[in-house]
């Protein structure tokens, strides 16, 4: 059963990134939204996390509208931008949602 992991906490609290990896499995997806989008253009914060997700077969997404509201630049490589329709598609594709 695949899960959609939604993260909305501030990027200053990065411990949740690695806690998530312990619970996530292949076929899951991670969606950064809300305050969490502020870290998507920071390779120092996310590069290792995104690389580990890729190895585990976990896709990483960021909600484009939240990036625009917060004035965030382009996400680092490995993070896919999605719009609200893409968010709905992710919810439909995954059997459960886990909010961090």
Q: At CATH's second level, what is the architecture? A: 3-Layer(aba) Sandwich
How many strands? Answer: 5
The CATH superfamily is DsrEFH-like
Low-confidence segments, ≥5 residues, pLDDT <50? Answer: none
* C-alpha Rg (nearest Å): 12 Å
Shape: globular
Count of domains: 1
Biggest sheet strand line-up: 4-3-2-1-5
**Helix-strand pattern, N to C?**
EHEHEHEHE
| Amino- and carboxy-terminal Cα gap | 18 Å
Overall structural class, as computed from helix and strand content, comes to alpha/beta
Q: Give the averaged pLDDT, no decimals.
A: 90
Provide the CATH top-level class.
Alpha Beta
CATH topology: Hypothetical Protein Ychn, Chain: A
Estimated share of beta-strand residues: 15-25%
Largest sheet: 5 strands, parallel
Number of helices: 4
Q: Helix share of residues?
A: 40-55%
GO biological process, one term: tRNA wobble position uridine thiolation
Organism: Arenicella chitinivorans
Pfam families: DsrH
InterPro entries: DsrEFH-like, Sulphur_relay_TusB/DsrH
Task: Lay out the secondary structure.
Blueprint (H helix, E strand, L loop, with lengths): L2 E5 L7 H9 L5 E4 L10 H14 L2 E5 H7 L8 E4 L1 H10 L2 E4 L1
Could you walk me through the main structural features you see in this protein, from its secondary elements to its overall organization?
It comes from Arenicella chitinivorans. With 100 residues, the chain is an alpha/beta fold. The chain has a single domain, classed as DsrEFH-like (Hypothetical Protein Ychn, Chain: A, 3-Layer(aba) Sandwich), CATH 3.40.1260. The chain contains four helices and five strands. A five-stranded parallel beta sheet has the order 4-3-2-1-5. α2 links the parallel β2 and β3. The protein starts with a strand and ends with a strand. The mean pLDDT is 90.
């Amino acid at each position: 059963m695949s899960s959609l992991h939604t993260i909305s906490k501030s990027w200053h609290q990065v411990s949740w990134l690695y806690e998530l990896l312990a619970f996530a499995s292949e076929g899951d997806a991670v969606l950064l939204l809300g305050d969490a989008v502020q870290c998507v253009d920071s390779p120092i914060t996310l590069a290792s996390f995104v690389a580990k997700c890729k190895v585990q077969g976990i896709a990483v997404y960021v909600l484009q509208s939240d990036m625009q509201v917060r004035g965030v630049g382009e996400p680092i490589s490995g993070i896919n931008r999605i719009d609200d329709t893409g968010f709905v598609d992710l919810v439909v594709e995954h059997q459960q949602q886990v909010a961090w």
